Amino acid sequence: MKISYNWLKEFIETDKTPEEISTILTGTGLEVESLEKVQPIPGGLEGLVIGYVKECTQHPNADRLKVTKVDAGTGEDLQIVCGANNVAAGQKVVVATVGTTVYPTVGEPFKINKSKIRGEASEGMICAEDEIGLGNDHAGIMVLDENAVVGTPAKEYFKINDDYLYEIGLTPNRADAASHLGTARDIAAFLKIAVKRPDVSAFKVDNINRTIKVIVENEQASPRYSGVTISGVEVKESPKWLKERLAVIGIRAINNIVDATNYVLHDLGQPLHAFDADEIAGDTVIVKNCPEGTLFKTLDDAERKLSADDLMICDAEKPICIAGVFGGIGSGVKATTKNIFLESAYFNAVSVRKTSKRHGLKTDASFRFERGTDPNMTVFALKRAALLIQEIAGGEISSEVSDNYPNPVAPFEVEVTYKTIDRLIGKAIAHDEIKGILKALEIEIVNETGESLSLKVPPYRVDITRDVDVVEEILRIYGYNNIEIPTQVRASLNNSQRPEKDSVQSLISDLLTANGFNEIMSNSLTKSAYSSNLDSAVKILNPLSNDLDVMRQSMLFSGLEAIAYNQNHKNPDLKLYEFGKVYSVEEGKYIETQRFAVFITGSESAIQWNQKSKPASFYSLKAVVDGVLAKLGISDVLVEDATCKKLAYGLQYKLNNKQLVKFGSVATDALKKTDVDKEVFYADFNFDMILKQARKNKIVYSEISKFPAVRRDLSMLIDKNVTFGQLKQIAQKTERKLLQDVNVFDVYQGDKLPAGKKSYALSFILQDSEKTLTDKAIDAIMQKLIYNLEKESGAEIRK
What we know:
- By secondary structure, this protein is α+β, with helices and mostly antiparallel strands.
- The chain has a 7-stranded mixed beta sheet, sandwiched between helices. Strands 3, 4, 5, 6, 11 and 12 form a 6-stranded antiparallel beta sheet that branches.
- Strand 27 (444-448) and strand 28 (452-457) form a beta hairpin.
- Helix 6 (256-268) packs antiparallel against helix 9 (378-393) and helix 10 crosses helix 12.
């Protein structure tokens, strides 16, 4: 949210500097993210001065140029070559001296240098209106009033005042502060001064010749609807002060009527809408819901299908505006508009928020309505805007103010005790101080006892509904920095399971980062097109877009989107990992699971002068998976082939018959959905299970054996459906004491083997911690391994 310092000072009288106001705002909870000096027009006319043309003669070498002598108040006359038709001796003009940077209305800024034009020296420039950003006229130079004082900075002559712009990080609960008035309230409460509200006492009804009838059919979605008619307005460009005021906060001027409504919106926080009264059929405004699927063209010339839940402003024949969100293309103010109907309403926040999200429309009005506006501000803002429009566009108030408010919104009633205030703040604050802060915040004290306060909170403070909310208000105005830090801190120590989740996550992150991986963070919202089972997906009721309509069920596609983005930006070699959650619905319950994903694609290592680039492979990923599990001390996993539609091939590791991790090459269908054109290797860890298993591990000291290990290899022919995990399990069951490790180092499948068969070559590591193994003992173990492998897996040992 953008707030102007000069604008704020219209509500409060203070000599505080912009920097001091920034500190106050941040201290009261309206965090100032940036403070910058701004100028209503680019460059602020710096370096431009008022000059007097003493002489004007024809350029000797150019028919369309004049050579002038100009007094710019420097003590020496400047010779300036000028091409304007209207330049003449005796004029007061605006002069850009040498070294000045000029900011034209159209085009890039340029610097004035001393130069020669057709052989004549030129020491500056006599300026036209559009050359210095004051307008669009380029018919000739600006000729000023003869009373202008030579040497006066143009900034002073045109009364260009510097301003300061605050960028405030407004939290969703502080809807009351979404205006200059709201922001000024906090400053005034902190400084213990009064807020000056605009004076609307001059508002009067001139006649009732153009009354627009208002009918509110949906009072729940529109608790209050106010309006008035203004006839005989002249739609034109806004006055300079209004355009500058809006420009400071980044609002583009449109015309005087629209600018007036925008001004009041940012002034008081009350959204307004001006309709062309002549376009309202039947001179009737109806606030209602239209049938499902009704077509409506908005101001951006887009045709939208309305929902039956959308609150609409209609005339006697058709919808003319989406209530609180966006106007219609036919009923808006145009250059030919002469009569307007001005709307000021209080709409239901939930209704506006749903409609805004449904149609993907975010406007300044919807921003405020969906957070909660002040129901008691509508008529005041209406009068403020009507007076402003009369001032800058003329016209007469040609109807009474219609105000449909059948059920006034009651203040929030809150009880709070002094004991609660002192306990939560951590300091006893004087009761008079507390009551003074509440009064400054416009919170009414209805009843007071020696121990508590009964309060009525104004309806615009939608964030104050409980006693703790009141305590927060007192504290932020009293000042967080005024609460002393106690010398003694009382706390209880809680035991937590070891290792902690963050410790395990950091351990894995350090391992992968050290091996060239980069961590990514992805949005948990994704598109339903990625879902393989939409029935179990967690759907978003009011999605921001079609690409963010479900919670992710897998970590795969968010990683593939990151890979696609990098590949499109010529970064094809990637090693990524991500910690995150996946979501699903099972038997009507929402399930949230912590996952950990690893992605490898492209080359495993960059090209070096002494080695060739090596493409990543399945075994590159397997090494990472095994390394992570080894780092966490997780072993004795069951290895199986992965059966998953998302993987073309791969493995899965199980522990206690539960899947610990599955990994492999991503299937082509999944790659196509994200436009990834290279092979990607993906591992999906169940992080919750990893954490649970890591907590079971105990560090046990074991002395390194002094006796050598022995390796023996076996080559065997087995059925294609037999896995390495099954073979390893058979081997470990056969010899539990001396068999230290089993690995597969060669796999062959081809036409030289019998149908349905494959060849495995396994290595067996044998070691005794107490003695050196003899050939006899080794042979005996190997014979038992061969026997059991042949018996249980049908293996045929190749000799």
